[in-house]
Predict the structure.
Amino acid sequence: MSSKQFFKKYVFGQVICLALLASFIYSPLASAERIKELASIQGIRQNQLIGYGIVVGLDGTGDQSPVTVQGITNMLTQMGINTPAGANLQAKNVAGVVVTANLPSFAQPGQTLDITVSSVGAAKSLRGGTLLMTPLKGADGQVYAMAQGNLLVGGAGAAAAGSTTTVNHLSAGRISAGATVERAVNMMVGEGSVITLELKDSDFSVAALVVAEVNKKFGEGTASAKNSRVINVRAPVDYDQRVSFLGELESVRIQAKPQAAKVVLNARTGSIVMNQAVTLKPCAISHGNLSVVVSATNEISQPGALSGGETAGVTNAQVSIESKPGLVVSLPNSALLSDVVNALNSIGATPQDLLAILQAIKVSGSLNAELEII
């Protein structure tokens, strides 16, 4: 089998997999979501931690920056070792790093966290290094965890015929369970007998559905919507009963209605994502060497005299895309944005072309969806 045939079969297989995945996502069973996937409970959140530390034990790949040298000097001084005045420390095996971590809700002292270690200087690699004890602070300046451990830089490298090829990113790595929680964050779940749900996306219809399903399960008056995002829920005051109640509340399934049509375009990579079939109204666009025309024609469907049917209007859409050197791609009886994007890709349109054309279609009012550019 040739490489070209293999590539075609591979692409075909990927398309089939995506089609099966899409059919599952849009099935009635999959559209029922739990409240825990649609909303969060006010007061339950994670907190970001950050700290500056030193990685030692590198194989001559350190940064040797003045800040790193000063950090080593301060560390040695705290250990009772005074460096001679004017001494030139050769810090080839040392690098200054920033350590970050997320402190989960209700984390208690003694629990461990995964941490990410990133070089802040010109270190060539952190592979094989050891992070020295580093305090991790929150936004309030308090120390909530201490980090230390051997750094793992993932990926692989290969060398052949005197040349070295590096696949991974060497200036950052992780340490599993590399930090220990030293201070707990006090979190209050609701005030008195009321807790607050916050929808991840502001939507009046979803808020109404959540209120209806919660009241259906726990009784009328249990939930009430404050606005399109915030929902107040009456809960038991006893902590043990409240935990059980919240577990049941998060498991309530909501048959959410289809979201508004939306098109997301990544301006850097040219990736386009649509959450559903997006249609186009009649329009005509000329962009560089490309010409896009979306037209619609109204036809009358007249049934037979004895058929008992009714006269009906039928709208047929036709999309034509032309590249001025002479290449024309026609899509009869179709006005779907996905077909237009595929046709533009087939004639070599660049991500910048797609961005300009979609923006123009949106401004003209011919795109029946929200356009978001990231």
User: Anything to note?
Assistant: Helices lie at 3-25, 35-38, 66-78, 204-218, 239-250, 337-346, 351-363. Residues 188-255 form one domain. Residues 283 and 364 are 8 Å apart (CA to CA). Residues 6-30, 311-316 have pLDDT under 50 and may be disordered.
